[in-house]
Structures are given as C-alpha cells and as structure tokens.
C-alpha cells in the first residue's frame, strides 16, 4: 500500500470512531433529557427571565400567567442545585402570595 492509501484509511478510521463516540454521547444525553424534562431549562438565565415574566404578570393582574410561570420555575428547579435555589424560593413565595389573594 502506498503512503497516501494508508493515510486515507487512518483518517477514515478516526472519522468513524469520532462518529460512533458522538452517537453514544448523544444517546446518553437524550436518555438523560427524557428522564429529566427540566434539564434544558435549568439554568439561571432562563429561570430569571421566566421569574421576571411571572412577576410582571402578577403586577399587571394577570394571575393565571403568573401562576404558570411560578409553577414552571418550582417544577423545573426542584431537581436543581444551589445556584437556582433563589429562583425556586422566589417562585414558591409568589405562589403563596397568589394563593392568599384568592
């Protein structure tokens, strides 16, 4: 075999190995995302936006939208770590306020 054929085969093998590794990683991610639906939304920036929208809705008297926002944060943040605990606490406080206004 010539040098260029060997090099081509080596590059092909590396490409196949990378494709298989990527497929395995993707399948793991999909499995994890299916078992934890809130995974994709559990970051501080997303929760901050939803919390602000819920607060705005509450301030404008849109109780149903505020409840949906607060419940979303409470549900998504339930499996989170300490970095999102303040959003969950604020959402729970908002839900308590709205339940008192009934």
| Class based on secondary structure composition and strand pairing | mainly alpha
Largest sheet: number of strands, sense, barrel closure: none
Radius of gyration: 23 Å
Principal-axis shape equals rod-shaped
In total, the number of strands is 0
Q: Give average pLDDT, whole number.
A: 90
List keywords for this structure.
102 residues; mainly alpha; rod-shaped
Q: Please, could you describe this protein's structure?
A:
The protein is mainly alpha-helical. The model has no long low-confidence stretch (mean pLDDT 90). It contains four helices and no strands. Helices cover 78% and strands 0% of the residues. The protein has helices spanning 3-35, 44-59, 63-77, 85-100. The protein starts with a helix and ends with a helix. The protein is rod-shaped, with a radius of gyration of 23 Å. The protein has two domains: 1-35; 39-100, no CATH class. The longest helix has 33 residues, at 3-35.
Nutshell version of this structure?
The chain is 78% helix and 0% strand. The protein is built from 4 helices and no strands.
Question: Secondary structure elements and their pairing?
Answer:
Layout: H1 3-35, H2 44-59, H3 63-77, H4 85-100
